[in-house]
Amino acid sequence: MTERIIHSESDIAEGTAHLARVCPRMAHACDLVGAVPLRRREDGFAALMGAIVSQQVSVAAARAISARLDAAGFSGPRIIAAASEEDLRAAGLSRQKARYIRALAGADLDYAALRMAPTEEVVATLTKVPGIGVWTAEIYAMFSLGRADVFAPGDLALQESARLLYGLPERPKPAALRAMAEDWAPWRAVAARILWAYYHVAKDREGIA
Predict the structure, then answer these.
(1) Does domain 45-144 correspond to CATH entry 3.30.420.240?
(2) What topology does CATH give the domain 9-40+149-206?
(3) What pLDDT, in 10s, does the model give residues 35-70?
C-alpha cells in the first residue's frame, strides 16, 4: 500500500499549504479557519462500533449510550457477540443498532490487514457489514487509518461548506462533490478537514441551520 498516511500536524500543514497554493478559495478558507485539526483516532472494532452508535443521534446522546455500553462491559467483539439483543437494547441501543453491532462483532474483520489495504478495498470490505455505509467507511479510512486522499462527499456539512465556499447555487450532490474533490488530490482528507472547519466558521457568522 503506497497511499500517503497522515500521522501528525506536520502532515496536515503540508496538505494545507498545497491546497492553498492550488486553489484560491481553499486559501481563503485556510485564512479564516486557522490551524486545521489532526483528528486522528484509533482504528479497530471500537472505532466502528462507536460510528454505528453515533448514527442519527446527537453527539451527547452517542456519548451517553457509549458510556452505558462501557459500564455494562460491552467493549469487545467477543462480549458483544455473546450478548443478546435485549441486553444491548437495555444499554440504550435501538433494535436496529443492536443488530448492526452484533453483525460487526461477528464479521471477524482483519483490522491489521485493513491498515495496509487500498482505500477502495477498505470501503468495499467495511460496507459488506450491515450498518456500515460508504460514509462511515470513508470516515473510518480518513480518521482511523489516516488516509490522506480519501473524501466523504455524502457528508451534508461538507456539501454545505462547499456550496458556501465556492458560491454554488445549491448543495452539490455526492457525485458532483466527489468530482469537485478530484482537484484537491492528493490531500482530499485535508480538504475535508478545511471544509468542516470552514462550515463551523460560516455557521457562526451566518446562522446556518
Answers:
(1) no
(2) Endonuclease Iii, domain 2 (1.10.1670)
(3) 999 999 999 999 999 999 988 888 889 899 999 999
Q: Could you give the 3-state DSSP secondary structure of residue 147?
A: strand
State residue 208's pLDDT score: 46
Q: For residues 78 and 152, what is the distance between their CA atoms, to the nearest angstrom?
A: 30
HSE toward the beta carbon, residue 14, CA cutoff 13 A: 13
CA 197 – CA 147 distance, rounded (Å): 18
* Amino acid occupying residue 30: C
Model pTM above 0.70: yes
Q: In degrees, to the nearest 5, what angle opens at C-alpha 8 toward C-alphas 116 and 46?
A: 55
Residue ranges per structural domain of the chain:
9-40+149-206, 45-144
DSSP 173: P
Banded pLDDT at 209 (limits 50, 70, 90): very low
- Residue 204 belongs to what H/E stretch? helix 188-206
Residues sharing a CB contact under 8 Å with residue 69, sequence separation 6 or more, in sequence order: 53, 75, 88, 91, 92, 93
Phi and psi dihedrals of 147, rounded to 5? -65, 130
Q: Which residues pair with 5 in a beta bridge?
A: 147
